[in-house]
Every structure is written in C-alpha cells, then in structure tokens.
Amino acid sequence: MTHRTLPQLLFEKADKEGGKVAFRQKNLGIWKEWTWHKYYREVESLALGFQEEFSIQAGDRIGIIGDNRPHWIVTELAAQSIGAVPVGIYQDASSDAMAHCLHECEPRILVVEDQEQVDKLLDIIDSFPTIESILFYNEKGLRSYSHDKLMDLKNVQSIGRTRASEDPSFFEHQIQKVKPLDIAFITFTSGVTRHPKAATFTHTNLIQTALSIHEVDPVKADDDYLSFLSLAWICEQVMAVGLSLTRGMTINFPEEPSTILNDLREIGPHLIQAPPRTFENILTRFQIRMNDSTRWKKKIYKLTESGIEKNARAKLSNRSVSFLSKISYSLNDFFMYSAIRDHLGLSRLRRAYVTGGRLNKDAFEFFQGLGVNVKQTYGTVETTGYASIQRDQEWSAEGAGKPLPGLSMSIASRGEIQVEGLQVFAGYFGGHPVTEFSTGDYGKILDSGEIEIRGRMEERLALDSTDGRSSSEIETELRKSHYLQEALVFGEGRSYLTAMVTIHRASVGRWAEKNQISYTSYRDLTMNPEVIELIRDQVVEMMASLPEESRIKRFVILPEELRLSDGEMTSTQKTVRRTVEKNYKRYLTALYNDGGQFDTLSNLYSEQTNEGEIVPVILLDRSQGVA
C-alpha cells in the first residue's frame, strides 16, 4: 500500500466497501454513523470547493483546529486530494502558541471548529494578512459575527458539490495526481525542550507506520477505535487516519472531551492509545471510587486484589502458573475483574498502547494483572509517532518493545538513540529531507532486542559527584503515588537532587474530607500541615525503591496546578521543564538555600523569596539537617 496515497486508499474503500461504517460521531447522546461512501463524498465536495472558491494549489497549506470530529479528517483528506498540505494545530493552544504555528507554516486558509477557536484567531488575525479566510463548521454562537474573513464551511462544500455534479469523474482524476512521497501532513513537535518545530510527513510515512503496527498487532476491519487524543498529534494520525484507511477499522469520536469516559464505556473499543498520565489517572479514579464504595464491594475487591498482583508477576516473568492458580484467577475474573474492565470501558479491549512516555511500574502491573493488554511503546514526532512496540507475551514495565518492521534503531555516542527507515519523517518544514534521525533520547538495546529508554539527553542530571541519571526515571517513580499529579526533578551540577511536585486535587481532596480537614482551594490543600505530612510520606515511600544517589533530598509542593495556558504543559500532557523552572524560579532557589528557618517539629525549611513569599521546603528526614 505504500505505493498509494491516503486519498487513493479512501477512494478504494468507498468503491469496494461504500456501505460499511467508517466513522461514528456522538451528538446529543446519539451515535450517528458515516459510511465510507459518505466520507468520500464529503471529502470530494470540500476539496473541489477549496479549488473553486480559493484556487488552492498543490503545496498550499490549510490549517485545521478543533476537537476530534469527522470534519477534521474530512478537511485533511480534502486538502491532500488536491495536493495541498493540512497543518494540524492543537485545539487547546493559546493565541500566542497559535501565532507561532501560523508564522512557521504560513497557511492560506484555516478550518476551525467553533466560536472558541474563532475568537482566539480573531485576536491575532491582523498579524497574518496572507490568511485569506477562516472557515468554521459549528456555527453555534457565530451568527452575529461579521468579520470579512469568516465563512461557513458548508458554503464551500456546496460550491464543491456543484462542481462535482458538472464533472463526476473530475475528482477521481485529481487524486491520482498525488504521489506517495508528497507531503501529506504537518504537525508540531511537543516543545518540551525547545520551541515547537513544524515536522512534515509523506503519505508513505503514515501508511508505512500503520502497516508496521498491523504487522506486529493485526487490526481487523470490524475493530472499533475511540479517537480522543488531538488529531494534531502524529500518534493519533497514525491510528485515526493511517490504520483507518489501510485496515478499515471504525473510528469513534466522543461527543465532548468531558464525556470521553462515558463514551469509552459505550463503545468498548478494541484498541486505544494514550499518554502515561491518562492510564495513571484512570487508575487513580478507580482507587478513589473503590475507597468510596460499599463495605461489601471493598471486601470482595480486597479478597481478589492479590490475584491481580500474582497474575501480573506471572505474565511479566513469562512463567507458567499452576492449574489451581488458573482456576482462582478465572473465578476472580468472573466475579470482579471483568466487572472492573467493563466499568472502565475496557471489556473488549485487545491492546492499549502507552504513547509519549513510560507508564510507571505499579500502573503497568495493575492493568496487566487485570487482564488489560497494556503495551509500552517508544517513538517521537519525527519517527511518525511510533518506533517500537512491545510484542504480546514480551511485556515489561521497563522496556519499550522491539523496533517496528521496516525501522532500524541503533545507539550512537553517549547512548543516544538513532533511527532509520520509511517511518522517519520527511524533515522540518523549510529544511532538508532526512533519511535517519537522532532522537535526542538515550537508552540501550537489551539482549532480547527490546529498547530501554532512559530519558532525554537534556534531562540527564549530572550531579557534582556522579556521571548522571535521567530526571524522567525519578519523576515516573514519584507519579506512582495516586496523591501526586506531576513531578519535576532538579540537580544538574548540584550536590543533591530536589523536586517540585503538584498534588492530585481529587485524590488529596477526598483524603482531606475523610480526615475532616477543611479547605477552600487547591492552594489551601498544599499549605495544610497534615497534607504536607501525607505527601512527604508518599515521597519517602516512592524513593525507597531507588538507589541512594537517585533519591531526592528536598522538595516543594507547588501552590498551583501546572497549566497548558501558561506553557507549563504540552497538549500531549508533558511538562515543559524550562517554563516551570522559569515560572517557579524562586522555588528552585529556595530548594538549594540554607538560610531559612528550620522547624524541627515539622521538618520544614521556610524560605522567604525576594517578593516576600514564604516557601515551605520539605526535607525527607530530620537527620539530614542542612542537606
């Protein structure tokens, strides 16, 4: 299939399987279906409308901003069908972040979902005179808007339908002009270590990556997939576009971001992907609900909980279990585990890919022990999202699987991972084409052939007494506590490690209520002495499994949750270290100052910043004194 393009695959699906379901979109509580034929006709009308109304030419860029909807993918395929290049922009990006993306790729037109996106764009549109029009496909709240660049997408499609009726074969000839090595998509790197860069991908990149995943984990034509991660993310493109068009699986779109968990239960997909924090949050919510359930349910779960651990250990060590153990697990599964999977919407799930990072060991073992086939993966934007996937029966909490078919991975100097193959992206926009890529991550290849990722080269903490270790490994360990939401570890060039953490609002809030601790805000919780004691105990527990030189000595609880709007988080749920360090520079200074007041009872240093703010610095044990 790599000798074809995505629009050509769509044409074949519509021609051979036109009546089958391609999409489901939930609207007002009802799942509405789109057949492959409808999908194709919508793409046709929009592509011809782009040509007729805006004279879009091959190579022109069309920006797309919005939640996961059929319209998003229709716009993408319409652009590709006429040789234009769709540019995915994260829907939760701030106006400044959007401006950066628009400067980088210079689109001629923008297709956006609703009033929220229109408002952000109208704030900055005067800085982009080359943008000819903003097309929207949800008119709610926009009827009174009169900006001369605003236009309803339906009007463009109406123009295209007229053109299609005049020459029914014209569009089919158009899509045959597109070549597999043409640029099919532009998205942006995460921006965790530097400003986001526009990465370009060919049709071959997306199709080959999808086919390689299918070769490892076969995808069936009647499989269901729930698309809830931003379509601007390349991993979501591989699934919702690449695997959909190559394997024919049905893509389901949630009604709203807030309804994802309910929609997950209704669809019961066969395949999902999500960042580690999504799986960790699912586990935390489950633990909270279990703690709040009836005494009877808690008692049953307690009786069966050890079976989850035993099953996980057996699977991860690849050892056989006794006949009695199999009977015990089957009974537990019938009475408890299957009900939990069903409650979480994972009852039909065959595979759950962890993308964008490594899932912590406790969460990984919980899902595996529960019978959920969670798989660690590795990839970067530049490897079209995926470079390696764990094979069935070869699971491990530490590894990230073997390279995908068609991709080779090697270890360069200082342990940096390099990749080469058809999945490697076409290059950064405006730059030179590439055939191999240095990922900026370091790790090693195990004897089994599995890759082990240690962290980013930039995150390698070189203490003044050691060669260094990855901050991400320690941060992953800290996030094993369901009372901690985020963690950032520091120590480069210092004599000891420190951390900034944020608490899990719901989990800590529930704990506070049960212990009759009153609070009115997140900040109140972070300053409460009993909460501080709880978090200290959690950090001590999480650090116990690490060697002494990898343990943090002090930490602070940040007074606010990290926010995407402040640039502290990316749209793919990664923390932006440089921004957090900048926004909380006073806290970092306090972590390494020894001039504050030490309270031997609370085991806290109280540092006063230049702004007069008191920062409680938490020590992990009293014997440290001044660390």
UniProtKB/TrEMBL annotation:
Molecular function GO labels: ATP binding; long-chain fatty acid-CoA ligase activity
Domain of life, per lineage: Bacteria
InterPro entries: AMP-dep_synth/lig_dom, ANL_N_sf
One GO cellular component term noted in the UniProt record for this chain: membrane
SUPFAM superfamilies referenced in this protein's UniProt entry, alphabetically: Acetyl-CoA synthetase-like
Identification of the protein by name: Long-chain fatty acid--CoA ligase
This protein's UniProt keywords: ATP-binding, Ligase, Nucleotide-binding
Domain (AMP-dependent synthetase/ligase) ranges: 11-429
UniProt key word ATP-binding: yes
